[in-house]
Design goal:
Blueprint (H helix, E strand, L loop, with lengths): L2 E9 L3 H7 L15 E4 L9 H15 L17 E5 L7 E8 L2
Antiparallel strand pairs: 1-2, 1-4, 3-4
Length: about 100
């Protein structure tokens, strides 16, 4: 089984939606920051947001188990073994780059 490199590309914060729907004093993601890197097999890395993991784990699973080609028949990311995903937080999403690594 291979491994997957997860890199935090961006953290975003939708101030308008947060003001309308968020709890008092909500701000950007308190868990992840740009540039963080995690290497994993198919388990959630230590210090990785559990909710973000739920959003990306099936892509990680495919990559570590040797997926060939691109996701969705080349209608998404143009590079083999790469996926760009976000967590499911609509107010402060985090964007991740997943990369297939060898053993």
């Amino acid at each position: 089984m291979g491994k997957c490199k997860i890199t935090v590309l961006e953290t975003q914060f939708n101030e308008k939606l947060a003001k309308e729907y968020g709890v008092a004093n909500i701000g950007p993601c308190p868990v992840h920051e740009v540039g963080q890197v995690f290497i994993t097999d198919h388990f959630r890395p230590e210090d990785f947001c559990p909710e973000a993991w739920k959003s990306i784990q099936h892509y990680v699973f495919a990559l570590v188990h040797g997926m060939k080609g691109t996701f969705f028949d080349n209608r998404w990311v143009r590079f083999e073994g790469v996926s760009i995903n976000s967590c499911n937080d609509g107010l402060r999403p985090v964007i991740f780059k997943l990369e297939q690594l060898g053993d």
